[in-house]
Amino acid sequence: MRFLTAGESHGPQLTIIVDDVPAGIPISIEAMNHQLARRQQGYGRGGRMTIETDRAQVKAGIRFGKTTGAPIALVIENRDYSKWVEVMAVEGDPTTEALEKRFSRPRPGHADLAAFYKYGLTDLRDALERASARETAARVAAGAIARQLLEAFGIGITSHVVQLGAIRVDESLIPTSVKAIETIAEANDCRTTGNDAIVAAMHIAVDEARMAGTTLGGEIEVVVDGLPPGLGSYAQWDRKLDGQLAQAVMSIQAVKSVSIGAGAEGASRDGANFHDAIVPVERGLQRPTNRAGGLEAGVTNGQPLVIRVIMKPIATLRVPLDSVNLDTGKAEAAHFERSDVTAVPACGVVAEAMVALVLARAVMDKFGHDCLSDMLKAKKAYEERLVPAPIL
Ligand code: EPS
After folding, report:
1. pTM greater than the 0.85 cutoff
2. How far is CA 1 from each of CA 20, 100, 221, 375, rounded to the nearest angstrom?
3. 335 C-beta closer than 6 A to ligand 1
4. For ligand 1, atom 17, which residue shows the shortest CA distance?
5. Does 3.40.50.2000 match the CATH number of domain 2-386?
6. φ/ψ of residue 70, rounded to 5
7. Among 167, 218, 322, 362, which is least packed, fewest CB within 10 Å?
8. How many whole angstroms from 173 Cα to the centroid of ligand 1?
9. How is the chain split among helix, strand and coil, in percent rounded to 5?
10. What's CA 179's distance to the chain center, in Å?
11. pLDDT tens, 89-100?
12. Residue of the nearest CA to atom 6 in ligand 1?
């Protein structure tokens, strides 16, 4: 399963093609729209989210509620486009309005300067429009297809915010099951497993950042359960599931760090306190701890998959950093226009989508690419071989 997206933040629509999708997956458009709505939530978003109500329209690949094995084409309209028609015109010369929206003072940390170097763009709006995190709506729509395949295999995915700005959840209180995390995190607008005091402190931190004209980053944890052991491979570098997950999650706008399980503690813990012992039980094997985060040697081990993701503060600042005017070469403050103070809660939903896409591919590599019922039979046969675990 793979996907491509096209679309500008203020263009008419986002377009998504999801390819290599097995036939026979029941698809609920309502479930897809639910994921899109989750991504739009979160304390700290700017005015844009009051304009958009993201809905996926299916243009190909699904008939009577099931995938057909054909590529799936999806469209999400940008409601804001109606105010940007002249600025985003496909033909003709820029109008006065389009020239007013032109800018040449790159925002440090954004794609603007890269666009000048790489593509020779002089209106940095061309970079802003495509590099915008608006594109993450397309990822969530594609991920919703993958999620519905994973659901048929009993695989559940969730995420929660562990840190927003300087406010951090007490690690010892984080539940481990997808259901328990979901129940707590979906009930507050920071999507955190922190208690009411933590949510209130996160609100204050966002309000203070807004007043100061700055932005906040944070840390998210994605948790997946129901994964069979044996997905991925250690046999070749590009088939290692940890590497594939890291690439997919690192590609999310503003993500600067990805780690698996207690990965970030690997430098400071000794081996006896880092690895997870193996305990034979009557019908299989148990692991008393999950510091590996469900992956050993790039292969799932049957434990929940745990991924930590750090999103940097958004690069569009109301009180901008020093920059340059690329038209004149003179020092000037960076460009500013409407943006979010933080999108860390939304980033969790996007990370879930990217993880779902990688896991769907891993499930297909193990159980087949063509037809859901064949894949489920292959999974059953595999499970019969695993139980009891092969202990000699
Ligand atoms: C974004 C800037 C803001 C965000 C946008 C990402 O958009 P605008 O410039 O229209 O106010 O709201 O996020 C989304 C539109 C979205 O759907 O998440 C940016 O520059 O990355």
Report:
1. yes
2. 5, 42, 24, 14
3. no
4. 134
5. no
6. -85, 160
7. 322
8. 33
9. 40, 20, 40
10. 19
11. 999 999 999 999
12. 133
